[in-house]
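Hi Y.,

Following your request, here is the sequence exactly as I used it, all 151 residues.
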Amino acid sequence: MSRFIWNIKNLIAWMPVLWGNFDWDYDFLLIILKFKLDRMEKFFGSDDAMIVESEKVRKEIARCSTILGLLINKEYERRIFEGYFKIYPFYGIETVDVVDVKGNVHCQLKEMPEEQKDIFRYYSDMCKMAECDLKDELFMLLRKGIGYWWD
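Below is the corresponding structure, written out as tokens. Let me know if you'd prefer a different format.
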């Protein structure tokens, strides 16, 4: 296949990723990185890879991609907050109707009891720690491997 045709196919593959890109949100950077690493993982898992340690490289890249997926989809938050949702099945969000001075009715969030706030803060802190741990692992793997993830 000519280089020109490969470049066109590459551009078409990247188009949906780049089309949804915005400069103001770091999630888009993670999406771009995940897309690139997914393509590299596929390459290192193919017969086209020439290096001896291609399977090792593929596994390292796959782990990075998995971590990126967790960060993008916030899956770690759902897993952590499962305990909170068992205690507070309505997600802690209750509303009350409030009437203003003109007689208009507005929906307003009901204040959480202090105990529930403390528990919510605890789970929120757990999420922040899990996110930091995932980012630490991701960037450690990138720092360690990026120099030899080529063929």
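Residues 3-145 form one domain.

Thanks again,
Q.
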